Amino acid sequence: MTASAHQDTLIATDTRRGFELSTPLPDFRYIKKFQKLFPGRNSISLIDVFETVNNASGFLDCFKHFETVYSLFVDDDDDNDHEHEKPDPIYFYGNLIDRCKRKGLKKTALKLDNLNEQILEDSFREYFLTENIGRAISCVTEFIESHSLSTLPESGLNPYWFYDSSSSLGKSTVICCSEMEFPYVIDTLLGNNAAPLEKDYFEITNPVATREFLFGVADLLGYSYAMRITDFSKIPFYGTDNSVKGVISPDALVDTSLIEDNWDQMLRFIATIHTKYTPATIIMPKLMNRSDDPIFQGIREVGRIRQTTFMLNYIKSLELRQAIENHLTKADIYKNQSALIQRPLGKNEYIPHDDRILNNACKILTESCITAWNYLHLSDMIESSSNPEEIKSIIQQGYVPHWKHVDTIV
Question: How many CB atoms lie within 10 A of CB 121?
Answer without folding.
Answer: 16
